[in-house]
């Protein structure tokens, strides 16, 4: 392994460890990436990680502040002019239309330090309640379910390595073979024991790992996951497979839960989900009899309008089996974005303050206000979640100015036609980015910011492990870190409190602000993390933090987990009307999130240059669609143009489209803005569409 700067991948929440050589004086052309030994990736990287250095000098990297001209073109401008312009416009908007006329939209890829500072800046410098972030589209349902059941939300409440000993692992709606390939190594034991169970309407790359005796692929109709989970819980209880000692000693709410599952007898579950009764029973019995059982959920079951209840049903099943907090067992959710965990802990969410505290809690407000050196009354109340915030853009009496940091909403948000209209009607859009993203096209001002290998900071992985991101090379001369931008704007706005530009100092403040909260970073520091300690929050000095949660108690005041009775809203489902099909959106191995980064890496883009619609051969035949031929996918919200990938890995009533692409290939032209009533998660996994042969290309 070469000597180099020890850091982590810029993409997903596995946060694979890597060494970067070639810095600090060199530019990207001289940077080499090698995988580094670490418990989660053991030296492995996926093709996204191996090619990440190419982001640093990508062709359309923005290296100067840009100001939109009256003719719609962008011109370079000096930082001081750009910041003066922004501050004057923000001040004017606040004075004329109130503080909530200015909004902030953050991202789950920002470092902990940036996420924290952005939340503080929004509340104190702008005085706005209008802040939320793209994690709403990713982790919000699982987070809400975890908080409800356990009193705490940490994606995996155990280290990834624990999975190595498992004999049964269930992946509900998670395609790790494409989203985080090095994770597959941790499934080897379960595969060898024939105990890998993958629940997915598609025969995904991960589902194929169950072949040849590796386990079982369960293929329910899209949107019926909740009924499936209720049915599995019904069988576990009815067949006497529940862990009654655990249920009695560590949970509350069992009787109501039992009654709620009565309506989901196996034959009804089969009729609703399409999963045969025999397979349902085999599935439930394996869960109860496997030595070392883990249930893991992903976006497939969480990105629904009933996503919180579905994740809750998965937790209920795990609790009835006695898994969470037990030896060699557990429940977890597979966090997606690189800092999806930390991004939701430090105050980017509209209803939270640092430490995962409720913004409506007077004690939380007093604690954070003291750290910030302000009176609690200066901290505004709760705002509105992402989809609602985007719906307010440009509306009378609502948001007129928007700052976007680390997010490409024009591709990643649902119903992007409405989002574009909102952005177009703003008085002022400021985008901090390193590329000319689809969202940046709408901006009035674009501020160029540092990339992952050019900055210091921390990220928190899917296991709740706080990791150091380290600088391997200097950014281009006129590029700045967001901490500097926020400080400069705060000064111009005469904001209360101070805004350090030192990531280590911001982390120390973050740790103080989080102390005593749910996500408690106190005791941690950059210096401590630089010693190489494995720091899982909550952290106790002299330890490695808390790798395994819930061993003795859950985080609710009485120490017990909550079994929450939930209902399947889709009922018995029923056939799709006419020629309509169910569209699932999802990810590919080569691309990450909105594709704003990976579409700029030649090896990745060449491998997957365009949107391809997966469709069953029988369905394609019926619709006159030929392999690689153009197709148009439509519904009331829009039309998407793609090419056909005819595959029997998908159900005949379902089609799949990756969401990484833009413009006429954007899957989110079709998705709707309806959200889960608890988490505000949009419905990304069940959209009714029509598909025709032919298209614009
Ligand atoms: Fe690892 Fe995820 Fe990066 Fe791939 S994208 S190298 S799985 S952190």
TrEMBL record:
<dbReference type="Pfam" id="PF04879">
    <property type="entry name" value="Molybdop_Fe4S4"/>
</dbReference>
<dbReference type="GO" id="GO:0051539">
    <property type="term" value="F:4 iron, 4 sulfur cluster binding"/>
</dbReference>
<keyword id="KW-0479">Metal-binding</keyword>
<dbReference type="GO" id="GO:0043546">
    <property type="term" value="F:molybdopterin cofactor binding"/>
</dbReference>
<feature type="domain" description="4Fe-4S Mo/W bis-MGD-type">
    <location>
        <begin position="2"/>
        <end position="58"/>
    </location>
</feature>
<dbReference type="GO" id="GO:0046872">
    <property type="term" value="F:metal ion binding"/>
</dbReference>
<dbReference type="InterPro" id="IPR006657">
    <property type="entry name" value="MoPterin_dinucl-bd_dom"/>
</dbReference>
<keyword id="KW-0004">4Fe-4S</keyword>
<dbReference type="Pfam" id="PF01568">
    <property type="entry name" value="Molydop_binding"/>
</dbReference>
<dbReference type="Pfam" id="PF00384">
    <property type="entry name" value="Molybdopterin"/>
</dbReference>
<dbReference type="InterPro" id="IPR009010">
    <property type="entry name" value="Asp_de-COase-like_dom_sf"/>
</dbReference>
<dbReference type="GO" id="GO:0022904">
    <property type="term" value="P:respiratory electron transport chain"/>
</dbReference>
<dbReference type="GO" id="GO:0016020">
    <property type="term" value="C:membrane"/>
</dbReference>
<keyword id="KW-0408">Iron</keyword>
<dbReference type="InterPro" id="IPR006656">
    <property type="entry name" value="Mopterin_OxRdtase"/>
</dbReference>
<keyword id="KW-0411">Iron-sulfur</keyword>
<dbReference type="InterPro" id="IPR006963">
    <property type="entry name" value="Mopterin_OxRdtase_4Fe-4S_dom"/>
</dbReference>
<protein>
    <submittedName>
        <fullName>Nitrite reductase</fullName>
    </submittedName>
</protein>
<dbReference type="GO" id="GO:0003954">
    <property type="term" value="F:NADH dehydrogenase activity"/>
</dbReference>
<dbReference type="InterPro" id="IPR050123">
    <property type="entry name" value="Prok_molybdopt-oxidoreductase"/>
</dbReference>
């Amino acid at each position: 392994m070469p000597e180099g700067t020890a850091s982590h991948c810029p993409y997903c929440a596995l946060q694979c460890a890597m060494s970067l050589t070639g810095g600090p004086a060199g530019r990207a052309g001289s940077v080499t990436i090698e995988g580094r030994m670490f418990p989660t990736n053991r030296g492995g990287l996926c093709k996204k990680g191996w090619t990440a250095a190419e982001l640093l000098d990508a062709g359309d990297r923005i290296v100067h502040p840009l100001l939109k001209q009256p003719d719609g073109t962008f011109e370079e401008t000096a930082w001081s002019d750009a910041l003066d312009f922004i501050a004057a416009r923000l001040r004017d908007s606040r004075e004329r239309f109130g503080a909530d006329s200015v909004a902030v939209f953050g991202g789950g890829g920002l470092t902990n330090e940036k996420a924290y500072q952005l939340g503080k800046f929004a509340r104190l410098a702008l005085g706005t309640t209008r802040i939320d972030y793209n994690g709403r589209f990713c982790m919000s349902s699982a987070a809400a379910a975890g908080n409800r059941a356990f009193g705490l939300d940490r994606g995996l409440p155990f280290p990834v390595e624990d999975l190595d000993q498992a004999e049964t692992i269930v992946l509900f709606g998670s395609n790790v073979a494409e989203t985080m390939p090095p994770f597959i190594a941790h499934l080897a034991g379960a595969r060898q024991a024939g105990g890998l169970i993958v629940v997915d309407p598609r025969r995904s790359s991960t589902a194929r790992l169950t072949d040849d005796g590796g386990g079982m692929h369960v293929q329910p109709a899209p949107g019926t996951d909740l009924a499936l989970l209720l049915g599995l819980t019904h069988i576990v209880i009815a067949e006497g497979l529940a862990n009654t000692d655990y249920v009695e000693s560590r949970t509350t709410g069992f009787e109501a839960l039992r009654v709620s599952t009565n309506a989901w007898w196996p034959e009804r579950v089969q009729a609703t989900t399409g999963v045969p009764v025999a397979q349902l029973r085999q599935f439930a019995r394996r869960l109860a009899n496997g030595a070392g059982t883990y249930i893991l959920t992903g976006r497939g079951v969480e990105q629904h309008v009933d996503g919180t209840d579905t994740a809750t049903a998965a937790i209920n099943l795990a609790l009835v089996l006695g898994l969470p907090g037990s030896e060699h067992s557990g429940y977890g959710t597979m966090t997606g974005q690189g800092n999806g965990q930390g991004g939701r802990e430090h105050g980017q969410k509209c209803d939270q303050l640092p430490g995962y505290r409720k913004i409506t809690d007077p004690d939380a407000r007093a604690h954070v206000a003291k750290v910030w050196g302000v009176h609690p009354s200066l901290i505004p109340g709760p705002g509105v979640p992402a989809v609602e915030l985007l719906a307010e853009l440009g509306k009378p009496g609502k948001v007129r100015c928007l700052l976007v940091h680390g997010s490409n909403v024009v591709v990643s948000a649902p119903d992007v036609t409405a989002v574009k209209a909102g952005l177009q009607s703003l008085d002022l859009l400021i985008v901090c980015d390193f590329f000319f993203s689809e969202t940046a096209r709408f901006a009035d001002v674009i501020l160029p910011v540092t990339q992952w290998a050019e900055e210091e900071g921390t990220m928190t992985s899917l296991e709740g492990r706080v990791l150091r991101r380290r600088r391997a090379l200097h950014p281009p001369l006129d590029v700045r870190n967001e901490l500097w931008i926020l400080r400069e704007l705060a000064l111009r706005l005469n904001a209360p409190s101070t805004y350090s530009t030192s990531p280590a100092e911001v982390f120390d403040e973050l740790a103080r602000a989080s102390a005593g909260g749910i996500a408690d970073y106190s005791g941690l520091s950059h210096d401590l993390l630089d010693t190489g300690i494995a720091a899982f929050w909550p952290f106790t000095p002299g330890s490695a933090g808390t790798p395994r949660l819930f061993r003795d108690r859950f985080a609710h005041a009485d120490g017990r987990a909550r079994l929450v009775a939930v209902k399947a809203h889709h009922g018995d489902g029923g056939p799709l009307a006419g020629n309509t099909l169910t569209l699932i959106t999802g990810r590919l191995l080569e691309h990450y999130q909105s594709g704003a980064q990976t579409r700029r890496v030649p090896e990745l883009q060449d491998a997957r240059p365009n949107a391809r619609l997966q469709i069953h051969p029988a369905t394609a035949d019926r619709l006159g669609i030929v392999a690689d031929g153009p197709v148009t996918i439509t519904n009331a919200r829009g039309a998407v143009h793609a090419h056909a990938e005819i595959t029997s890995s998908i159900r005949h009533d379902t089609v799949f489209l990756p969401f990484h692409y833009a413009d006429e290939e954007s899957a989110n032209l079709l998705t709707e803005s309806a959200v889960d009533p608890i988490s505000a998660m949009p419905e990304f996994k069940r959209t009714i569409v029509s598909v025709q042969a032919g298209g614009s290309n």
